[in-house]
Design goal:
Oligomer: single chain
Shape: globular
Distance between the termini: 35 Å
Number of strands: 21
Structural class: alpha/beta
Strand order of the largest sheet: 1-5-4-2-3-6
Strand content: 15-25%
Largest sheet: 6 strands, mixed
Number of helices: 17
Length: 551
Amino acid sequence: MQDDLLARAKAWLAEDPDADTRAELARLIEAEDHAELTARFTGTLQFGTAGLRGELGAGPMRMNRSVVIRAAAGLAAYLKKQGTPHGDDTAGLVVIGYDARHKSADFARDTAAVMTGAGLRAAVLPRPLPTPVLAFAIRHLGAVAGVEVTASHNPPRDNGYKVYLGDGSQIVPPADAEIAAEIDAVRTLHDVPRPEAGWQTLDDDVLDAYLTRTDAVLAPGSPRTARTVYTAMHGVGKDPLLAAFARAGFPRPALVTEQADPDPDFPTVAFPNPEEPGAMDLAFAKARETDPDLVIANDPDADRLAVAVPDPTDAAGWRMLRGDEVGALLAAHLVTRGAHGTFAESIVSSSLLGRIAAKANLPHVETLTGFKWIARAENIRYGYEEALGYCVDPEGVRDKDGITAALLITELASTLKEADRTLLDLLDDLAVEHGLHATDQLSVRVEDLSLIAAAMHRLREQPPTALADLPVTKAEDLSRGTDTLPPTDGLRYTLDGARVIVRPSGTEPKLKCYLEVVVPVATHASLPAARAKATDLLTALKRDFSTAAGI
């Protein structure tokens, strides 16, 4: 077994095109580090609906140039089998974007070389740019597919590979499995032509077109007075966001300078995710200096948006809004502006969106988790998911976009400011009108993935009959699908005035449980009591569900 392991490692080493991972693997082979070699060579990094994502390093279970070249070759073969023209001046175009993480630029160039070698056309964005710019470029340039090299808000040691098709949406089944099969068919890198030239590096015209498109997000003549503090979380959002805000006529955001520029090591945060504890501390410190109306934050590839508001009851003086709260605020703002079309959300997001849409006589749909599903809602006008993702201009970007969402929430804050009101005031109004919808999440990170499978098995074999002293009125195993949803690995429990959904994360070693309670609110004066009741219910739901799942 060990001889076979070493043989596979040496074969991988022989065709590895990257000096860094070659040196790393050579050291492991020389040391005969069987534990580490086993971790890297037992299986392959699986290509799925999130594309690829994993830790950087040598071997088929890590993100590296060899894995990326195989993935690109599989995608190229898939596109050609779909009837995509190739081999002449009308060859299908694949647009490639990348963030500022370690190896991202290398992975982007390798992808362009593979596409060119396969007889397709390839165009690479001019420098590290937000993921929504890539999603925009696919539709803007009439591409047959797009690739974004990013690990979003994962730790610094990770990178990833996200695939879009020509409609500008991320891949969904069966495309993911068909691409994975083509990747598996790549026997050796020597079979993959990779010319050193022949692809196009785009200029700033594509970014300028994206920024021009942001004009469509805001209402003509709307107030543009709200002042903001902004952090790019060491990612690529700063320059495009500042340009978009200047174009719109908003005051220039005050920057969190320590996090303003790209840095693949993310030195000021444990996780470069605005939702993680401590990630927003520097932004709140800047806000205490500058007294803005809002704090806004992007994640490193700027497809997500976090929003915080002044709150004197909070120790930091600022309160992060939950993704569901921002999702409801943006929806209410679009309704006020007379928006038409479908409002879409993932099943784990708040049911408040459905109530807002119903009151406005607008279509509303729930989809599986992720914008690969949300963006495909028929006649979509607005979509969001609780994990800080918002699609406010689907004609421009058929994906979540933290830049345009920042514009829209700042327009809303400006409109409210004109009336001496705040986002919190509007949230209170929505609670009185539709009931207080309070959400929370129980998220368990594991080292051993079998613990997640065990928890899901336990819940399927012994589903809870009551949680937080509320009877479970309906228990659904989403792996069987529903009338409106395709099968997915998840469980949904409906209670009297509450809801719980549990599923394994698609991108991290986590089990995620999404909790919602709905408390009727008669008047603004009864809001404090309703909030206290909601807090107690959520606490009890967390406790009881944790026990039921054995986590």
